[in-house]
Each structure stands twice: as C-alpha cells, then as structure tokens.
Amino acid sequence: MRIRPRAGSALAALPALIFSGSIYGGEAPDLSGIYWATRYSAKIELVGGGDLPLTAAGKAVYDSNITGLKDGSIRDDARTFCVPDGLPRVLSTPYPFEIVQAPPGQVTILYELNHQVRVIRMDKSMPDYRELSTFPSYNGYSIGRYEGDTLVVETAGFNGKTFADATGAPQTDGMTTVERIRKISPTQLEIVITVHDPQYYTRDWQSRFVYSLRNDVRIEDYLCGEQHRDISSVAGARPR
Amino acid sequence: MSKYAVSGNPIALALCAAIAAAAPACAQAPAKETIPELASTSFAWLAFGGDWLDPPAGLRGPIRHDPAYPFHGNLDGPGQVTVRLGNYKDPVLKPWAAAQMRESNEEVLSGKREIPFSAQARCYPGGVPGQLLYPAEPFYFIQTPKQVWMIWQRDHMVRRIYLTDKHSENVKPSWFGESIGRYQDGGTLVVDTIGLSTNNSYIDNFRTPHTNKLHVVERFKLSADGKTLEALVSVEDPDTFNEPLHMVQRWRKVRNPLLETVCAENNGDHFDQNLFPIPQALQPDF
Questions:
Q1: Contact A77 B16 (CB under 8 A)
Q2: Domain that holds residue B127
Q3: pTM as predicted
Q4: Is A51 in CB contact (< 8 Å) with chain B?
Q5: I want to staple B191 with a disulfide (CB 3.0 to 4.6 A). Which of A181, A208, B181, B214 is the partner?
Q6: Residue of B nearest to A141 (CA)
C-alpha cells in the first residue's frame, strides 16, 4: 500500500497514519517513487575519499579481475548477460529505479537495469547462515526497518559472483551490507551503504549515492543487447 | 479484501481526511469498487500449466496443436513428451501468420532446431498475454492505489499496470506494452494492453505471432474461496486473426516467498540442440 506524503498540514498527515497502519512498527517515511541518478562512476567512490582498503587477498583478486576484464578472460556477466549486479554495484545504475512501499510488510525496489527486483522484508528477521548459504543470490537476502526518516536495509546471503563496481572490485559470498535510505530533500534520495567483507577489506567502508525523484518517467522494459533508454543525461555514463 | 480507495481524486481524499477526524471509518469511504487481494508477502500465484484453457462456451478459443502432432507435455502422464507444434491450418489465422507458424513447425520437424523458441526457457519476456503461460514458478502482485505490478519470480520479469483511464497518445512498442487497468464488476482487475512489440513475441507457446495492432484485454478474478485466480484473456489483432480469440489461464495460491531466479545462469546449449541464443549484450550499455 502506498504511503501518502506526510509533509504538510496535520490534516494531510492524517490519512498517512490511517493508511500506514501498524505493520511498519511506526510511521513510515514516504520513500516511494521513481528515482534516477544524475552521475555515474565506474569506480566506486568511498565516503571520505581514498582507495578501497584491500587486504592482500583482496588486492590479488582485484588485480586479477582488472587484468581479466581487460583481456576478456573474465566476463562481466552483469553487462554481458544482464544477471543482477549485486550490492553495492546496483546502486550505481545510470538507469531509473523505483521504490514501492508495498505490499504491507515489504519494500520492493525495482530497477530498470536488468529488470532487477529487490525484496526488502520488513516483517522478517535475518535467516541463519545455513539457510542463507543454501540459497545465495546476486542481490542477497534483505531485511529492513524504519529508523525515523530512514529505511535501514541489512543484506546477506550473497553468491560471491559479483563485482563491487564496474572496475572489478572484489567481493566474497561472506559480505554483508547495511544501506541507509532516506530523502534528503523533497526531490532527492540518498543511499549510504556500508560494506563489511573482511576477507577482502581491512575495514568496513562506505559509499554514498544520491538520486533525483523522477516520477515523470516510467520504468521501461529492459532486455540484454537491445537499444535502451537514453542515459546521456547521467554524467559519466559512457555515451552509446 | 483490501481497504484502500481506487480514487486518486485529491478532493475526495482531503474531504475524507477532514471527516476522518470525527469518523475514522472514513478511510474506506471513497472506495468505488471492491479491490481483490492479489498482493501479499505470504502468498503468490502458480499457473496450472503452459497452455491456454478454453473460454466459456460460445467464445472463440485459443490456437491448439497441429492435429497431426498432438502435444504431450510433462503434466500429461506417461508417454514421450513432445514439443509444441501449433495448428497453422486454423482458419482464424491470416495467411502470413499461418505461413510463419508452419515454417516454425518445419524447423522442428526437420531437426534443424530440436527445441523451438520458448521465451521463458530462453530468458526472453513472454509478452502480453504470453507471459501468463509461465508455469514453473509463481508470480506476485503489488497493488497500490495508482498502479499494479506483476512480478514473475522466474528471471524477475515485471509488468506494470497503470490504473489510469486511458492509454498514452504515443506508445513506444515494448515487450510488455502499455497496460492500463481498473477494478470493476465486484473485484475483477481488467487490464487493457497495447503497444506490444512483435519480434519473438507470441500469444501462446505454439508460437502464434501477432502484429503491432495486437490489443489484449485481461480480466483477473479471484474464486469465491480466494484460492484460485483466473484470467479471461481476449486478444484482437485484425491483421493476424479473422476474429478475436478468448483464452483462460488459472493459478493456485501458493505460500512461496519471492526468490531470485536468474535465467541466464547455466543456460547454455549443452546438448547441441541449436537452442535459440539467450539475450546477450555484445557491447555493455555503459
């Protein structure tokens, strides 16, 4: 069920209370809508700047990924066969995506890129390691909760077949992430992701993404290899 | 039954908000139509099979198999499973469509392609209404007052249905076209779709083609006990069919959480059957 805007008068806020009900364990911020980045970076940018804090093992894999992606011995399946990007790479998409705060008990994020769907379970706890490792996935298993104006999403159960970014930054299936998703203005959404992947990184690191609210566009069908939407408005996305 | 209103009328909502201070039940007041409860985190819909069922008596039904090559599917009991060869001699077909279907059948019969094109086996969108025939994994709804989403677990295919009153003036052709919908007749979701692209898009698993004039109306209705979902699907395409076709699909309610199923994984042509290639980008988009 769509959560109505809670900004404005108390009168306008009343339906929000009625419609949101108690399933969210409190008043849910309205994050629903279609969002679109205005810039793209192939290399993931860290909060606070600097390079990825790679361990020796992480550096070895990253070097091998960079070489392999260049000479073709390693294939970027997300761009070649359009498998899901995984986290945090999907956050850098230069195509629009939408957040739907429905059905009750769930937040659904639907990306135009590779028609990816992320299910954020608001009414579940994280399954134990055995269950997660039985059904690992590209975009992992996500649970969420609201903290004030922020949707906090924890994700685990990745399959380790993904890159953290388009340059081949490495990740393992033991990675866990926390995303903090909030509106920073009526027309801007911010996602700050914290990546915990101790096998390849010496410390947890964060990356921040900002998107514009774009309810004027509709999410389009996306099939690998076809002509897709014009993304020339997204700075840094390689022109076609 | 869900409680939210179909109406997006801001005046009605503001009025309701004002009245709600005195009478909280007003939250339900603007409801004009019963909304069937199709969306949930705890259940989904699993199709009865991969072929259209017959419509009510009196309506022209779906294309069937070539009488010379009866179809025997995995669910049809003991016996050799066959591939689907459509009845290209069906008099409802325009000559070009009959010729295309015959050619597809001959490609299989000659052994040139052991398994004919199948959208969902080869990671293509099934189109409208073809996507409704995906039987092996469930699909899910999301319902909001302005929109309905249909999400197939298989390869996370998504259809969007806008609950507005009319189509856009210029619709860019796409796999799932432009769908507009409304709730009517006591809880039926009626979806009207145009703008469907034609390349590798079929209305059934017999590879019955269509033109860009295809117009599809789907009527989704829950059974009285809420455990079965049925769609009566009507397709008209005056350049492909001599009269509209009417077809039925049914789904049973299953308690499955939505999982990630990626079609392109492990989907090579391992037995040299000249399978239709899966979608692939020769150049990355960005």
A1: no
A2: 44-254
A3: 0.88
A4: no
A5: B181
A6: B259
* H helical segments located in chain B: 10-20, 95-109
CB contact under 8 A, B286 and A237: yes
Total domains in the fold of chain A: 1
Are residue B85 and residue B226 in the same domain, yes or no? yes
**How many domains is chain B partitioned into structurally?**
2
Please name the member of A1, A117, A135 whose beta carbon is closest to the beta carbon of B4. Answer: A1
- C-alpha B63/C-alpha B207 separation (Å) is 10
Q: Spell out the long-range contacts of A55-62 with Cβ–Cβ below 8 A and sequence spacing 24 or more.
A: A55/A198, A55/A199, A55/A200, A55/A201, A55/A202, A57/A199, A57/A200, A58/A170, A58/A199, A58/A200, A58/A201, A61/A170, A61/A200, A62/A168, A62/A169, A62/A170, A62/A200
Same domain for B138 and B4: no
Q: Which domain holds residue A111?
A: 26-213
Q: Tell me whether A40 touches chain B (CB under 8 Å).
A: yes
Query: Which ipTM score applies to this complex?
Result: 0.88
State the Cα–Cα distance between residues A180 and A231, nearest whole angstrom: 26
Does some domain include residue B164? yes
* Same domain (yes/no): B67, B4: no
Residues 104-123 of B with CB under 8 A from A: 123
Helix axes B10-20, A10-20, angle to 10 degrees: 90
Give, for all 286 residues of chain B, the pLDDT tens digit. Answer: 343 333 434 444 444 444 444 444 444 444 578 999 999 999 999 999 999 999 999 999 999 999 999 999 888 889 998 999 999 999 999 999 999 999 999 999 999 988 899 998 899 999 999 999 999 899 999 999 999 999 999 999 999 999 998 999 999 999 999 999 999 999 999 999 999 999 999 999 999 999 999 999 999 999 999 999 999 999 999 999 999 999 999 999 999 889 999 999 878 888 888 888 999 999 998 9
Chain B hits for A105, CB-CB cut-off 8 Å, are 41
Residues 60-89 of B with CB under 8 A from A: none
Same domain, B133 and B14: no
Q: What is the pLDDT of residues A112-170, one digit of tens each?
A: 999 999 999 999 999 999 999 999 999 999 999 999 999 999 999 999 999 999 999 99
Domain for residue B149, yes or no? yes
* Dihedrals phi, psi of A67, to nearest 5 degrees: -65, -45
Strand, helix or coil for residue A12: helix
B135 and B198 fall within a common domain: yes
Instruction: Specify whether B28 is located in the same domain as B163.
Output: no
Same domain, residue pair B9 and B125? no
Task: Identify all chain B residues contacting A127, using CB atoms and an 8 Å cutoff.
Answer: none
- What's the CATH number where A167 sits? 2.40.128.20
Handedness of CA B116, B119, B120, B123 (dihedral sign): positive
* Inside any domain, residue B196: yes
Query: Smallest CA–CA separation between A195 and chain B, in Å?
Result: 21
Which residues is B189 bridged to in the sheet?
Answer: B183, B220
Establish if A132 belongs to a structural domain. yes
Q: Which of A34, A112, A119 to mutate to test the interface with B (most CBs of B within 10 A)?
A: A119
Does a structural domain hold residue B37? no
